[in-house]
């Protein structure tokens, strides 16, 4: 059976593309630091081919797609498996690459930043764990330099950046690449960069949306 890529959600785990999922769930929220994609896959198993579908390892790189558009990049952090002689069900969860941002930023010598903008400070801090930082659009006041900013002993990277964002009336959200984006709190700017055209009755068979 052939599929129209614009109607299929899929997960690329390592070099294998899984598109025969029975359910898929993506969670991306402002201020939480990371995003998640959970996929449940169920299929008939040809036992002569072994249990390749069960061998998805923790930490394997993965990319989630909706309608052919990448929406999350990260790695597998959870796997659950059920199987019998005829079927196997694999449930995996992918966590975005920016999972490293909750790591501690300082030890006994907190960093100090003088007369730098939010973008300059945040990019410097994010680079410690291999992430990037962007400001979406041109929000008012975002480019105003801080006279002096100090990291706190034991403060996480995410907590440090989030603290500075609140001082500039901005909030954090990750994007499909695992970077951090900023937008004016309560604004209407496009956080994801490239909308996905999902339309009821066309390429959506069923869906459930929860907004908090």
Describe what this molecule looks like in 3D.
- This protein is mainly beta.
- The protein has helices at about 120-125, 155-165, and strands spanning about 10-15, 15-20, 20-25, 35-45, 60-65, 70-85, 85-95, 110-115, 145-150, 170-175, 180-185.
- The strands form three sheets. The protein has a seven-stranded antiparallel sheet with strand order 2-1-5-6-7-4-3, with no helix packed on it. The protein has a two-stranded antiparallel sheet with strand order 8-9.
Key features?
single chain, 212 residues, mainly beta, elongated
Summing up helix and strand content along with how strands pair, one would put the structural category as mainly beta
Please tell me what the overall shape is: elongated
Order of helices and strands: EEEEEEEEHEHEE
Number of strands: 11
Structure summarized in a few sentences:
With 212 residues, the protein is mainly β. It has 2 helices and 11 strands.
List the helices and strands and how they pair.
Layout (H helix, E strand, L loop, with lengths): L8 E5 L2 E3 L2 E7 L8 E9 L16 E6 L2 E15 L3 E10 L15 E5 L1 H9 L19 E5 L6 H11 L2 E5 L5 E5 L28
Antiparallel strand pairs: 1-2, 1-5, 3-4, 4-7, 5-6, 6-7, 8-9, 10-11
Helix pairs in contact: 1-2
């Amino acid at each position: 059976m052939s599929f129209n890529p614009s109607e299929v959600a899929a997960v690329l785990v390592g070099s294998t593309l899984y598109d025969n999922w029975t359910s898929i769930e993506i969670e991306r929220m402002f201020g939480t630091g990371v995003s998640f994609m959970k996929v449940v896959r169920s299929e008939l198993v040809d036992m002569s081919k072994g249990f390749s579908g069960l061998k998805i390892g923790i930490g394997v790189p993965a990319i989630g797609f909706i309608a052919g558009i990448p929406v999350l990049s990260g790695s597998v952090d959870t796997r659950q498996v059920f199987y019998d002689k005829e079927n196997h069900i694999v449930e995996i969860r992918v966590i975005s690459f920016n999972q490293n941002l909750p790591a501690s930023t300082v030890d006994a010598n907190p960093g100090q930043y003088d007369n730098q903008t939010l973008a300059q400070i945040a990019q410097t801090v994010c680079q410690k764990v291999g992430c990037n930082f962007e400001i979406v659009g041109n929000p008012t006041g975002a480019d105003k330099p801080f006279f002096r900013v100090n990291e706190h002993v034991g403060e996480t990277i995410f907590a440090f950046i989030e603290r500075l964002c609140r001082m500039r009336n901005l909030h954090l959200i990750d994007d499909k690449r695992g970077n951090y984006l900023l937008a004016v709190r309560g604004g209407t700017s496009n956080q994801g960069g490239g909308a996905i055209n999902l339309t009821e009755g066309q390429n959506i068979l069923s869906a459930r949306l929860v907004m908090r």
